[in-house]
Amino acid sequence: MPEWRFDLTNRVRTILGRPILIEEQLTELPDPRYSERQVVTLARYVDTNEPIMLKIRYELRPETFGIRDPEYLQVMRQWAQEQYLQEVKLVEDVEEIGHGPAYLAHATQRAGEMFPYPDGTVNFIIMTRVPGENVARIFRTLSKQQLESIRRQLAFILEHMQQRWFVLSVQSPHFLRYDRAKDKL
Questions:
Q1: Would you say which domain of life the source belongs to (predicted)?
Q2: Which of 123, 135, 162, 167 is the most buried (most CB within 10 A)?
Q3: Per-residue pLDDT tens over the stretch 133-177
Q4: Cβ proximity of 10 and 25 under 8 Å
């Protein structure tokens, strides 16, 4: 079990009027350019018990990253917001080719006491839950044929992204889920 600098597991957040329980945090990546941290989680709507995924980007104290110039910070926050909106579009694009989660909604909120920088902003992308298992946890148990299938599917997804000028700047097998029964990444 990974140790996170800030673990969102078992926390509940109301987003767009619906309570969401974060069941498991899958990733945690700092982005010092924007003084923020990004995480991917498995979650569930509390009111309907529907499983979902959340991509969360939350701001951290800019001073922690040596950012003290308010004008510079404002520009960086704008760029971070633009990148977030591009991620929303990317989720929709990858869904169109039959991979990844389906886009459900996105929202921006004040962080509040749930996050390490309560005065910051949090961006959420709400998506359907992708079936399968975390590739980082199972890759050693997969056959050569399954690994080759994952490689082909991942190459297809990345080529699709590249054709639309999206660049995957952070890579982690924790982002990937593989459904063995359907041979689907």
A1: Eukaryota
A2: 123
A3: 889 889 999 999 999 999 999 898 888 888 887 776 666 777 788
A4: no
What amino acid occupies position 68?
A: R
Neighbours of 39 (CB within 10 A): 19
Whole-number pLDDT of residue 19: 99
**Residues 130, 100 contacting (CB under 8 angstroms):** yes
Closest to 23 in 3D by CA, of 40, 2, 47: 40
pLDDT score of 100: 87
Phi and psi at residue 62, to the nearest 5°:
-60, -35
Which single residue is written with the structure tokens 């990004």? 38
Domains of the chain: 1-130 (3.30.200.20), 131-185 (no CATH)
DSSP calls for 29-42: EEETTTTEEEEEEE
> Can you name the residues that pair with 53 across neighbouring β-strands?
42, 127
Amino acid at 94: V
The CA dihedral of 108, 110, 111, 114, to the nearest 10 degrees, is -110
